[in-house]
Amino acid sequence: xxxxxxxxxxxxxxxxxxxxxxxxxxxxxxxxxxxxxxxxxxxxxxxxxxxxxxxxxxxxxxxxxxxxxxxxxxxxxxxxxxxxxxxxxxxxxxxxxxxxxxxxxxxxxxxxxxxxxxxxxxxxxxxxxxxxxxxxxxxxxxxxxxxxxxxxxxxxxxxxxxxxxxxxxxxxxxxxxxxxxxxxxxxxxxxxxxxxxxxxxxxxxxxxxxxxxxxxxxxxxxxxxxxxxxxxxxxxxxxxxxxxxxxxxxx
Length: 251
Ligand code: ADP
Hints:
The protein is of the alpha/beta class. It is built from eight helices and ten strands. It has a single domain, classed as 3-Layer(aba) Sandwich (Rossmann fold), CATH 3.40.50.300. The longest helix has 14 residues. It is globular, with a radius of gyration of 19 Å. The two termini are about 40 Å apart. The site of adenosine-5'-diphosphate has 11 residues, from strand 2 and helix 2. GO terms for molecular function: ATP binding; ATP hydrolysis activity; transmembrane transporter activity. It comes from Halorussus limi.
């Protein structure tokens, strides 16, 4: 392949959707649904909650996308579906070119491990492990050897500005530092898409700003999806998808 063909191929790779959903609906059964009773033709008397209804969207590499909407509008449900943690009731989700419903549980677990990073509001770090060991955890599941894991985790901590805090435990770090460790962990394995669900919800404005800058930088060579209520945080994104009552109201 000559240089111009390679450049054109790289360009077209960059513009392809890393994650998309087509006419996705997610209903939950109220009260867990025992399944022993029948509701005939599925009319309106079904005891279900429609968390998302007929949602279609595509997110491309290089995009920093905000996901907003009031509490209960379906943001978490959408993130769970797009990250392959949950399956739609109707419609399809395609992650890194693979239609999620066509995969076995094992294939889906591997795809998630390789292509998806998630950052949570409350960091979800293991308190007894050092920053480096927390970041290295997903690399254990990816089958990397001990020295490779140490090296990659150290590089990732360096990338989020915590090169000098490798051996510190979460309890010895501020909220903002812990969230940076969580961002480094989400990057382990170089995923195509990072989902951040209210990542600044526990942080003050300045500290939250550092995390948002970091997430914006990460979107240069992958996609980053930021679910947030905070309009100032959403202002930093390239595009905002607004949900209301389980539907896309603006994109
Ligand atoms: P958001 O993240 O925007 O607050 P969610 O996706 O959590 O919204 O919820 C959307 C709707 O789906 C809400 O009405 C919520 O109560 C309902 N819901 C979410 N998860 C479940 C569940 N596991 N079982 C039943 N209803 C659920």
